[in-house]
Amino acid sequence: MALLEVKELDVRFALRHGDLRALRDLSFSLDRGERLGIVGESGAGKSVAAFTLLNLISLPGYIAGGSIRFDGQELVGLSDRRLRRIRGKRMSMIFQDPMMTLNPVLSIGEQMVECLKAHRRISSREAKRIALDKLSQVQIPSPEKRLDQYPHELSGGMRQRVIIAIALLLDPDIIIADEPTTALDVTIQAEIMALLLELCEHNNVGLILITHDLGVVNQVTQRMLVMYAGRIIEQGPTRDIIDTPQHPYTRGLIDALPQMATPGARLNQIPGSMPSLNNLPSGCAFHPRCGFVNDESGRPRPACLNQVPGFVNVGDIQTACHWVAEKQGKPMQTRTGEKSQSETSP
Q1: If you ran DSSP here, which 8-state letter would residue 168 be given?
Q2: Under 8 Å CB-to-CB from 328, ≥6 apart: which residues?
Q3: CB neighbours of 246 closer than 8 A, spacing ≥ 6?
Q4: Distance of CA 297 to the CA centre of its chain
Q5: Which residues have C-beta within 8 Å of that of residue 128, sequence separation ≥ 6?
Q6: Overall pTM surpassing 0.85 (yes/no)
Q7: Containing structural domain, residue 147
Q8: Chain segment 176-233, per-residue pLDDT in tens
Q9: Which of 45, 49, 54, 122 is closest to 83 using CA atoms?
Q10: Is residue 234 part of a domain?
Q11: Domain count, the chain
Q12: Does 115 map to a domain?
């Protein structure tokens, strides 16, 4: 049994003119010690997925359907009191901006000790010892000195190491890292990701890495999900998807990498932009931007325009694309609860 199982997750935001569906039919699993990447453009639903796993979405957001099972326990509908036994203890999260995560008026030591004492019945002295140990694990120099410092006294890379140390305080089974290196320069990014990978491998911690950086995903994760407009449109082993992407959107993301362009030429890009979630195109949400929406005669495929694609298997990769299914001559799985016509509005 997988450590984390997400099935048909449906997340909505109640707005004045109706519900906006932020996640649609989201299904994936994570084994103990496995590293999973979630990629896609801004607005694809990556961060909403991360927050939903820990039930951190706030009103007007809510879980409208689906299941999140952690170590055999259903989390959807669990009370806040019982969720607190899991959130931060067995499932930790690393947020994008450490300055927004750390409390600016409390020292690093106070924040770490407070976190430990909220979940364990230990003395302040023992909590401080554990905090020092975790700061040492994330390679922070002079950890005793750092305990008495405030967040503004540390560099961006140092603050992110503190966040990772806090995430490791209670020896979690899963760490969810939401764009953990966004605010850092390139050299510090590489150090932080190498550190996170080493810590997860050493402690057999499952990792869900949310990012738009395919290079990082390729280096760190074993499996990856590609999201578009609130849905998973491709999933499988990271190396297989990077080497042989099947979905036109995934191909576009990889072709847009700087190293894929001819030196001196313009960078490749996917035309158009991510559609608004309250006004999705009919059928496949990607079809207005897709270079394969037309058949050999130059006419749009009716299925692309009118039917939400299910998954088709290509080796170990699952991809949701009518063109791929046609090319492979393989049957397409249906998506549970999906309509053949669009869900253009909430």
Answers
A1: H
A2: 312, 314
A3: 234, 314, 317, 319, 321, 324
A4: 39
A5: 109, 113, 147
A6: yes
A7: 91-169
A8: 999 887 767 778 888 888 888 888 898 899 999 999 888 889 989 999 999 999 999 9
A9: 54
A10: no
A11: 1
A12: yes
